[in-house]
Amino acid sequence: MKPRKSPAETEDKDVIDHLGEFIEENFRKGMSKVEEIFKDDKEDDERTSYLKVLMDDKNVASVTPSSKFLVERTIKAMDLKHVKTIIEYGAAQGVMTKRILEKMPADARLLAVELNDHFLKDLRRLSDPRLQVVKGDVREIDKIAKQHGLGPVDVILSTIPFSYLSRRGRHELLAKTSDLLHPGGRFVVSAQYTTHLIPLFKDYFRDFKTQFELRNLPPSFIFTAVK
C-alpha cells in the first residue's frame, strides 16, 4: 500500500465540492414542494417523514431514501456472505440497515452510527440482536469503535455527505476508516453525487472501483475501496 500523504493544508473547497453542494441544495428546494404534496398522504408517511428531516438537517446525505436499486447495488458491493463485523456511517432511517441485516450472516455484528435524533428513533425500532445503534459523529469513529469493542472490522458502509466535509476532514475520516479495517476489508461509499473522493482513495486503500446507479434520486455513485 502506498505511503499516506499529508492532508492538504487548505480548507478551501474546489469547484467539484461546490457542484455536489449545488446538486443537494437545489434538490432540497424541489423536495420542499414534494413535501407539501405528500403531507396529507397517510400511505406515504415514511417518505414524508424523511423529507421533513431533510428540510431541517443539511447533514442528511440524500434528498430521498435510497432507491431499491441503489440499495441492492450497494449491498452487493459490500459482499456480506462471510463477514463478522460491519459498521454503517449515517444509517438514517435504516433503509440500508434493514437490507444488511437480511443479508449478513447470523453470527455477524452491525454497528449503525447516526447523529440525527429523529432517525435514531426509527433505527431503534429495528429488532435484531445483531444490531447496535449508536448516536455519534462518524468523524470520531475511532473513539466510537473503541468504546464498543469493535476493530478491526470486515466492512464499513458510508452514506454520509462527504462533500460537506473539509478536505482535511475527508483525509482524517478516510485514515480512521482504513485503520479500522482488516487487511482486505472493504469500505463502500454510497449516495455520492460527485467523484471528488477518487483521488483520495489512492492514499489509503490498495484498490477501488466505481459504479453509477441512475435509478436513484439523484443518480448516485457507489465507490468500493479495498484495504
Overall description:
By secondary structure, the chain is α/β, with parallel strands linked by helices. It has a 7-stranded mixed β-sheet with strand order 3-2-1-4-5-7-6, with helices on both faces. Helix 1 packs across helix 2 and helix 3 crosses helix 4. The N and C termini lie close together (8 Å).
Give a topology summary.
Layout: H1 15-38, H2 45-56, H3 68-78, E1 85-89, H4 95-103, E2 109-114, H5 117-123, E3 131-135, H6 141-147, E4 153-158, H7 167-180, E5 181-192, H8 198-204, E6 207-213, E7 220-226
Parallel strand pairs: 1-2, 1-4, 2-3, 4-5
Antiparallel strand pairs: 5-7, 6-7
Helix pairs in contact: 1-2, 3-4
How many domains is the backbone divided into? 1
CATH class: Alpha Beta
- Radius of gyration computed on alpha carbons: 17 Å
Structural class: alpha/beta
Here the CATH topology equals Rossmann fold
Percent helix range: 40-55%
Order of helices and strands: HHHEHEHEHEHEHEE
Strand content: 15-25%
Mean pLDDT: 82
* Unreliably modeled segments: 6-12, 37-43, 47-57
Q: Give the termini distance in whole angstroms.
A: 8 Å
Q: Outline, from the CA principal axes?
A: globular
Instruction: Please list the strands of the largest sheet in the order they lie side by side.
Output: 3-2-1-4-5-7-6
Q: Could you name the CATH homologous superfamily?
A: Vaccinia Virus protein VP39
Number of helices: 8
Biggest sheet, open or closed, and with what strands and sense? 7 strands, mixed
Please give the CATH architecture: 3-Layer(aba) Sandwich
Strand segment tally: 7
